[in-house]
TrEMBL record:
Pfam families: Acetyltransf_3. Gene3D superfamilies: 3.40.630.30. It comes from the Bacteria. Residues 20-181 form the N-acetyltransferase domain. InterPro entries: Acyl_CoA_acyltransferase (IPR016181), GNAT_dom (IPR000182). The lineage of its organism: Bacteria, Bacillati, Chloroflexota, Caldilineae, Caldilineales. Keywords: Transferase. One of its GO terms (molecular function) is acyltransferase activity, transferring groups other than amino-acyl groups. SUPFAM superfamilies: Acyl-CoA N-acyltransferases (Nat). This is GNAT family N-acetyltransferase.
Length: 202
């Protein structure tokens, strides 16, 4: 069935792959997320420091749910299917409904799950839902210019580098942050989908 291109309204949904299940973020995920996200290295380029306690994780989840209520963000817990534990988080942010665009961002994983198939499958599930279920026109991603690992991972997905916003923000460490933007647009999705499915078969 063709998706109506007059309705673009990202909402909490569960997306299931072979390795992970993306669940709408909830207070029940707090303990797992604190266990996965307590290392400062994970948050080096993030706007906030590492999760410092279960209560801190609960507060962060509360903020995510407030942004959901405002319609600006849909946050997911990344649940490892084999263990049933939440090992990170990702989100749809910068949602612009009238233009059918959004960004995949605020993504982090516990160090044990980095450089595994988790990120590839998460991005596949999010992009597939955005383009095939929501009829998105554009999905963007961005990275701190210093974050070489993130930049390589985004290019590996098949996204196109668009340019750099210089002095975009003041980073948490006080440095001028230059932000590199990438995107996948609807006409590119079939090729990107094929690429991601090939990566996941390896």
């Amino acid at each position: 069935m063709a998706v109506s291109k007059t309705i673009f309204d990202p909402q909490p949904v569960t997306l299931t792959g072979n390795l992970v299940r993306l669940e709408p973020i909830a207070p029940a995920h707090a303990a797992d997320l604190y266990a996965a996200g307590a290392e400062e290295l994970i948050w080096r380029y993030a706007a906030r420091p590492a999760l410092s306690s279960v209560a801190d994780a609960e507060g962060w989840i509360k903020a995510c749910l407030e942004e959901l209520a405002e319609g600006t963000r849909v946050t997911f817990a990344v649940v490892h299917r084999e263990t049933g534990k939440a090992v990170g988080s990702t989100a749809y942010i910068d949602i612009v409904r009238e233009h059918r665009t959004l960004e995949v961002g605020m993504t982090w994983y516990g160090t044990a799950w980095q450089r595994t198939g988790v990120n590839t499958e998460c991005k596949y599930l999010l992009l597939r839902h955005a383009f095939e279920d929501l009829a998105a026109r554009r999905v963007s991603l961005k990275s701190d210019s210093r974050n070489e690992r993130s930049r390589r991972a985004i290019l590996r997905l098949g996204a196109v580098e668009e340019g750099t916003l210089r002095n975009h923000r003041i980073a948490r460490d006080g440095v001028d942050r230059h932000t590199v933007y990438y995107s996948v647009i609807e006409s590119e999705w079939p090729a990107v989908k094929k690429r991601l499915e090939g990566l996941m078969r390896r």
